[in-house]
Write a sequence for this structure.
């Protein structure tokens, strides 16, 4: 009983955009100061998604490994960049970028690869209809987790540097002196995905599953994919946050277990 | 027992100093003269040149946290990170009464302690770890006179009982006379013995 996909037309989208326009108008009237950012964001989402749609259509029809890999590279670079941009305390340039990119790689990239080859068994493994959306979903979530965990760790350690040093003075190991802060940061990085898993299907219908159902998939098939995604995203985020916390903590202390923010953070200008 | 050999920190001439077991050295100097930085270097909390020995063990011969367990720095402002006092002690506290507390003080909530209470508790916390070298950065700055006497007596007793040594930083010359055998003064980047020609 597969239903036909109902194709959306430009006028359909225009109707939806009227709602956003109405919101912008109301915001302006009440002087709430969101109209500008809202306009920019709405235009951005339209242009970016249309562009990506065009690119994906070409890539899907060709399925060439080099093309797919260059898209993957762009996605990961932008994600690493985005992580750094969200940090309140700026990490040292290339090192910060390297840490974000590395943890994205070993979580999102490797887990996507694993899922494509071992679980989904797409043929060829880089079949873009599977590879790109899967990686996109993993990247989006791990990126969030890394950004949150990293920000919490660096920010808290900075605020509590006197406490960390006091603990070192009492003869604690560097790992011991930062243990509670590291735990806290791990939790901060994992909370969004844990919440998403707990609420899935009860409070919210996850976007991917909704999309598949709208596209005519039987709900149970869509659900199976959603469970797969949830597990991949959770493990990806977890591994990514652990990696990033370990790398930063290593960098935060020197070989004599001294707190070294000068190794970690950019000099304030 | 504690020996500083050409200890180099920024803006200070290389420091040479030897302290015998049971002895205390008093250190004075204006704010910003480098007293705290000197103590931090001895505890290996900052990068520095030269060498420090405690009981003939060189600083870089042992791991940093092991060094700091022997050579313990008491910062001017103590820090507390758990909810209650006893959570901050890795060994049972001794000498609780000597600083004017009852046993129930161990169960106190940190947020309800005054700065003077925290100061005295931080001294108990330090001594509970049985350090060999005490680096005391203005240990009685927040205390009233009766508690100052208690802290002075406790530290003196600890040093002679354990044959430990201390460097005691204070702005109060008469206090340094009471607690230490030699006094040094830090000014213009130089460490000079007080009373020496």
């Amino acid at each position: 009983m597969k239903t036909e996909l109902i194709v959306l037309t430009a006028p359909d989208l225009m109707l939806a955009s009227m709602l956003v326009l109405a919101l912008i108008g109301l915001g302006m009237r009440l002087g709430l100061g969101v109209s500008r950012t809202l306009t920019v964001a709405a235009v951005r989402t339209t242009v970016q998604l249309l562009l990506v749609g065009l690119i994906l259509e070409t890539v899907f029809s060709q399925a060439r490994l080099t093309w797919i890999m260059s898209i993957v590279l762009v996605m990961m670079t932008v994600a690493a960049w985005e992580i750094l941009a969200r940090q309140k305390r700026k990490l040292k340039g290339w090192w910060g970028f390297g840490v974000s990119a590395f943890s994205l790689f070993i979580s999102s990239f490797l887990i996507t690869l694993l899922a494509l080859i071992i679980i989904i068994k797409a043929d060829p493994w880089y079949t873009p209809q599977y590879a790109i959306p899967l990686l996109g979903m993993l990247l989006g979530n791990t990126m969030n987790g890394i950004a949150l965990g990293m920000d919490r760790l660096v920010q808290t350690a900075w605020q509590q540097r006197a406490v960390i040093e006091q603990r070192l003075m009492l003869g604690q190991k560097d790992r011991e002196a930062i243990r509670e802060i590291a735990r806290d940061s791990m939790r901060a990085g994992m909370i969004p995905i844990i919440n998403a898993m707990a609420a899935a299907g009860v409070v919210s219908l996850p976007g991917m599953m909704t999309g598949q159902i709208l596209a005519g998939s039987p709900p149970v098939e869509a659900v199976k994919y959603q469970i797969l995604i949830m597990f991949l995203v959770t493990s990806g985020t977890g591994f990514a946050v652990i990696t990033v916390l370990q790398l930063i903590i290593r960098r935060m202390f020197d070989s004599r277990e001294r707190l070294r923010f000068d190794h970690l953070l950019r000099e304030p200008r | 027992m504690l020996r500083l050999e050409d200890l180099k920190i920024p803006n200070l001439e290389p420091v040479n100093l030897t302290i015998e077991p049971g002895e205390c050295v008093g250190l004075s100097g204006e704010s910003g003269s480098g007293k705290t930085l000197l103590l931090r270097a001895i505890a290996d909390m900052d990068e520095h040149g030269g060498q420090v020995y405690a009981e003939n063990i060189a600083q870089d011969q042992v791991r940093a946290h092991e060094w700091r367990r022997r050579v313990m720095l008491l910062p001017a402002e103590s820090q507390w990170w758990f909810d209650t006092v006893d959570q901050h002690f890795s060994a049972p506290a001794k000498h609780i009464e000597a600083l004017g507390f009852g046993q129930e003080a161990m169960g106190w909530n940190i947020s309800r302690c005054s700065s003077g209470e925290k100061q005295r508790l931080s001294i108990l916390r330090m001594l509970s770890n049985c350090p060999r070298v005490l680096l005391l950065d203005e240990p009685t700055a927040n205390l009233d006179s009766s508690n100052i006497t208690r802290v002075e007596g406790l530290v003196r007793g600890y040093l002679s009982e354990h044959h430990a040594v201390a460097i005691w930083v204070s702005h109060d010359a008469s206090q340094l006379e009471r607690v230490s055998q030699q006094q040094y003064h830090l000014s213009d980047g130089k460490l000079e013995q007080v009373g020496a020609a």
Q: What stands out?
A: Chain B has one domain: 2-193.
